[in-house]
Design goal:
The chain has 385 residues and is α/β, with parallel strands linked by helices. It folds into two domains: 190 residues, Rossmann fold (3-Layer(aba) Sandwich), CATH 3.40.50.2300; 147 residues, 3-Layer(aba) Sandwich (Rossmann fold). It has twelve helices and 14 strands. The strands form four sheets. The chain has a five-stranded parallel sheet with strand order 2-1-3-4-5, with helices on both faces. Strands 7-6-8-9 form a four-stranded parallel sheet, sandwiched between helices. The radius of gyration is 23 Å and the shape is globular.
């Protein structure tokens, strides 16, 4: 037999082998990824990029052959920013859909409503919500990928201290995240010589915060304002802030770290400072920055798929999925208990939120250096001076 003929037959054999392997992977039982996010409602601009991110990366992982030769299957529900729906969808994912993991809880209140069910049924939950109470004290089956409100408060207060601002007004949303952030801010303020000389609150569905801001404007002791809330509320408050011509620095939490915030707040967003992940400034990070590659790659992939600007919140979903996939690969199984243990042992994993180093007592794995202080200037995100 001629050499060329042998090569041709060998090539056909290899092609057949790879084809059969691909068919086998598709025929294998899928790894079921459950998801509950707030893709619509007041927290929609947080949850929508999370849903899109999970869809995008489940597709790309499957095109690359899946995980352990098995395809991923995303089972996703939109809770509409409703805590009760988040709870009921969690129950459905566990008992009806029989998922292997749950990635979800856009809002802190939703995550807290989901926790009792995942703990009782012993299924890993990786949430994107912010309240520290989600992981402190550590709960066996619960992990998170966004910084806690405590660390966010510390970063804001560090920046205020650097700028000589010591007397502030604190405005908090009446939601779970807002109230947790309020509590943590009150506890951390004295560490940075910050005095909270005025406090106001607003509801998640409020559209006009002028009365609260008017009180703050007339308080001569206030040197800066710190807002803790999520969804559209902080953006509307920022517009009210400008309408009242309040001439003091305005700080927000990372819960507004999205171009959607700028779109709603418009030019009132300029000058707002807040801690945010590297995604919003990915292209201006120095080449030596260890987060540069993962941040730039995510931004490009998101823009190519959705023709839209990605956000910090989508990055939290990416981090959650990658942490889970890494754990499955580590143990070579989807056994929930083994995967849980592997997630808890995540070390040195650089993702969009920073370097994750989890432990039995730390189910977040990020520290105060994970995010960057940023400012909105001319409608763009820039690293704060």
């Amino acid at each position: 037999m001629k050499t060329s003929t042998i090569r041709l037959l060998t090539g056909l054999a290899l092609a057949t082998t790879f084809g059969l392997a691909a068919q086998a992977a598709q025929a294998a039982d899928p790894i079921r990824i459950g998801s509950v996010v707030s893709a619509t409602g007041p927290a929609g601009f947080l949850g929508d990029p999370q849903t899109k991110t999970l869809e995008m990366y489940v597709d790309s992982i499957n095109k690359a052959g899946g995980v352990l030769g098995r395809p991923l299957e995303l089972v996703s529900y939109d809770d509409g920013s409703d805590v009760n729906k988040a709870s009921s969808f969690t129950k459905r994912l566990i008992h009806n859909d029989q998922v292997d993991v749950i990635i979800g809880g856009t809002m802190s209140g939703a995550a807290m409503a989901m926790i009792p069910q995942v703990e009782e049924n012993q299924i890993p939950l990786i949430t994107m919500a912010g309240a520290i109470s989600i992981v402190e004290p550590a709960k066996k089956w619960v992990f998170k990928t966004s910084l806690t409100d405590r660390i966010i408060a510390e970063m804001v207060f560090q920046d205020m201290q650097k700028r000589g601002l010591s007397k502030i007004a604190l405005i908090s949303e009446t939601s779970g995240f807002g109230q947790s952030g309020k509590k943590e801010s009150e506890q951390m303020a004295s560490k940075y010589d910050i005095q909270i000389v005025a406090q106001e609150s607003y509801g998640a569905k409020d559209t006009d915060m002028t009365p609260q801001l008017t009180k703050i404007k007339h308080n001569q002791d206030v040197q800066a304002v710190f807002v803790i809330g999520a969804g559209q509320g902080p953006a509307l408050l920022t517009r009210n802030f400008k309408q009242l011509s309040i001439d003091r620095p305005l700080y927000q939490s990372y819960a507004v770290c999205s171009d959607e915030f700028i779109g709603i707040a418009r030019d009132a967003a300029n000058g707002v400072r807040l801690p945010c992940s590297a995604l919003t400034v990915a292209n201006v990070l120095p080449e030596s920055d260890p987060q540069k590659t993962v941040a730039v790659d995510y931004v490009k992939a998101y823009q190519d798929r959705w023709h839209a600007v990605p956000s910090h919140f989508g990055g939290c979903a990416y981090d959650a999925l990658m942490i889970y996939v890494n754990a499955v690969k580590q143990v070579g199984s989807t056994d929930k208990a083994k995967v849980r243990d592997a997630i808890e042992q995540t070390r040195g994993m650089m993702l969009t939120g920073g370097e994750f180093n989890m432990s039995p007592t730390d189910h977040m794995g990020l520290d105060v250096n994970a995010y960057r202080m940023q400012e909105i200037s001319n409608g763009k995100w820039v690293l704060a001076d």
